[in-house]
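Posting for a labmate who doesn't have an account.
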Amino acid sequence: MLNKYDIDLIKETRREITEHRESDITFIGEKRTGEHPITGEPITSEISEKTVAVVYEITSAFKFDRELSEGMDVQNGDLWIDVDLRDMAGFSPDEVKSVKYEGVTYTVMSSDSVGLGEDNRVQIIGRRTS
């Protein structure tokens, strides 16, 4: 059974392992800035923040090499982004709508918090949109 010490050790070890494998990315999303006074609908504004993450480019062009991730067909050209919660740049995982990586914008298809013992990172699957 994992205790608090084990969980902290896992987090720090993961930070060391990913340190030189991270790439610059930009999160693009919406933040709730208020509420419409009459209708009560949320008022949002688009924000973007730069951060770092481990990025895997899906390069297989063969259908039999595709895989399902959380029920999603991961395809050639998609990105698998693994970002530490400490590097979320003020976003919560559900606020990220798209990611810019190497000048290309990817729409977030799924975003899941994962970790051993407790959540310590977010895995995002992005599909190229531009």
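Reply:
Got it, the structure tokens are right above this. The first strand starts at residue 22 and ends at 35.
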